[in-house]
Amino acid sequence: MLVGVGLAVVPISGKAAEAPPEHTWQFEGVFGTFDRASLQRGLQVFNQVCSTCHGMKYVHFRNLTDIGYSDDQVDAIASQYTVTDGPNDQGEMYQRPAEATDNFPLPYDNKQAAKNANNGVVPPDLSVITNARPGGPEYIRALLLGYTDPPAGADLSPGQYWNKYFPGHKIGMPKMLVEGAVDYQDGTKATPEQMAHDVTAFLHWASNPHLEERKRMGLKVILFLIVLTAMLYAVQRKVWADVDK
């Protein structure tokens, strides 16, 4: 499957893409937090759809405890992947099930293999994709849902598709999020819109794993500054009260 090739393809025509529509995210705002249930569903979409062509080489399986998984669940998720290890006693590399300490593995052995499987394009790593693309989460979500029939006269080459949110509109990634593509473990109906929301939220967490921690620290700093300001104001009033006398 050519999952995500379009995230890396250079625009083919000069046509401007439509602006991604605004979308409500629970992690937005000063008090925003990640929805753990949504993140877990997003991981399921990544595992069953995106990981065919994409890796997340900067994310360790052990990090999944941050989105609500137990250590045993993380071990089970990691074991679904195979990683290269070694050398062994014979000096040879070998394959083994991934462990919690491993990173998400790349789906291809090398860049040339990735290009060969994806019309000459290396699918991008998704570790920081929402930070790396202008528009962030809104763009990624819109791109996943932006497939339409090409307008009359559009010249599409074999393996190209029309996406109204992609610069130039001609994209090398087919529409992957179709009804029922994933059977959510929590029973949530896997509509394209739901899957796009969930996997984008998961990718934004992967890109910003310390987002909630930074927000908590920011709030503590703000509260400290408010208290400090009040104390300084009180001291200033006291000092000037003595001067007036």
Description of the molecule:
This protein is mainly α and 245 residues long. It has two domains: 159 residues, Orthogonal Bundle (Cytochrome Bc1 Complex, Chain D, domain 2); 36 residues. The protein is built from seven helices and four strands. It has a two-stranded antiparallel sheet with strand order 1-2. The protein has a two-stranded antiparallel sheet with strand order 3-4. Strand 1 and strand 2 form a beta hairpin. Helix 1 crosses helix 6. The longest helix has 34 residues. It starts with 35 loop residues before the first helix and ends with a helix. The N terminus is likely disordered.
Briefly summarize what is shown.
By secondary structure, the protein is mainly alpha-helical. The protein has helices at 36-48, 71-78, 111-117, 129-132, 136-145, 192-207, 211-244, and strands spanning 82-85, 94-97, 161-162, 170-171.
